[in-house]
Design goal:
This protein has a domain of 113 residues. The two termini are 18 Å apart. It contains ten helices and eleven strands. By secondary structure, the protein is α+β, with helices and mostly antiparallel strands. The longest helix has 21 residues.
């Protein structure tokens, strides 16, 4: 089945905001430990400055909580939906650490994070593991693409070969020869495992990837998560590492997706 687009995701976010603001069911407010009487859910509509990215991008939070007084007749006229324009209109106060990441209830393979060459290098200090995780290693006819792949990641071929020969005790001499299929496969497995270990062991990196901490100002990090129809504290989601769909077009990324439940 083809992945659903942003339209369904937007609908989910809007319905979530309305549900909180109608305050008929207070279970989500109890989870947040906030008094529902003067707090409101607000949908993010503007891009935010990402410190690591050095530009404005969509933040981790899709929804956040703000405090203040909003007339009931206004809420009713908006069908209880609020966005960032209403924060300005009613001079609402941001609630730190209230950002919520919203996932479609039926989405099992949503994207946790996509890292470009520049983002990966800033986080991991080198793209050598990213190039190893992306390497063509299954069909010999595709091995020739590894030359462009290393260029795309900005990794020198000699550095690549020397690094993995040392780490894995290989005798690799080329990234394009069919004879090296077994070695290239070992490089891909090692790279995926090492990237995963670094993410799980390094709190600064995992906070950045899963919560947006260190990249976005409050309340645009995601301390809370709505996924599979459940609302909970955000967490380090068990993940798999893929190359994304752009590799065949020369767009090299590392993508984290949830492991199948």
């Amino acid at each position: 089945m083809k992945n659903k687009g942003t339209k369904e995701g937007t609908t989910q976010e809007i319905e979530f905001v309305k549900l909180l603001n109608k305050k008929e069911n207070l279970s989500y407010w109890n989870t947040l430990s906030l008094n529902p009487s003067n707090h409101h859910a607000v949908r993010v509509i503007y891009k935010k400055y990402g410190k690591l990215n050095g530009s404005k991008i969509l933040p981790k939070a899709d929804v956040f909580i703000a405090k203040g007084d909003i007339p009931l007749d206004y809420l009713e006229s908006q069908d209880y939906f609020l966005d960032e324009k209403d924060v300005e209109k009613f001079k609402l106060e941001y609630i730190p650490k209230s950002g919520i990441s919203i996932k479609r209830e039926d989405s099992k393979q949503y994207q946790i994070m996509k890292m470009s060459s520049s983002t990966f290098k800033k986080l991991f200090n080198s793209n050598i593991l990213a190039s190893g995780a992306s390497i063509y290693c299954t069909k010999e006819i595709e091995f020739i693409k590894n030359n462009d792949l290393l260029k795309g990641w900005g990794v020198d071929e000699n550095e690549f070969i020397n690094y993995f020969n040392k780490e894995l005790e290989l005798s690799l001499t080329s990234i394009t020869l069919a004879d090296n299929k077994k070695s290239l496969g070992a490089i891909k497995r090692f790279s995926n495992e090492k990237i995963a270990k670094i993410i799980n062991d390094d709190k600064v990196i995992s906070d950045f990837i899963f919560f947006g901490i260190g990249n976005f100002e409050e309340p645009f990090t995601a301390y809370w998560l709505y996924e599979y129809g459940k609302f909970r504290t955000n967490y380090i989601i068990p993940f798999t590492i893929t190359t994304g769909s752009g590799r065949s077009k020369g767009i090299y990324t590392i993508v984290l997706k949830p492991k199948n439940h």
